[in-house]
Input
Amino acid sequence: MLNHHAVILRVYLYLILLTIASAYMGSIDDIWSSEWQGLALTGILALTVIKGWQIVDVYMELKQAPALWRNLLRGYIVLLPLIIGFIYLVF
Output
């Protein structure tokens, strides 16, 4: 039997590490003035998608939910960073 509290704690620590990693990537001043800014933006947005996926599956407990609702939220998680990245690149 899987301990639900252990899973939540493990994902919580995982989310903290991903947040620290994305904050560190965003805080590097040299990266935003170089040719690496696209890679940094992609990395930060990818970490955002991974964090959102974990929140939907673990904290919202939609892993066993009907596929329609789970996929709608997962689509939102993917679509929002794509829109943010597009806006960043256009403007």
About this structure: The mean pLDDT is 90. The helical segments are 4-27, 29-32, 37-59, 67-90. The first helix runs from residue 4 to 27. The radius of gyration is 16 Å.
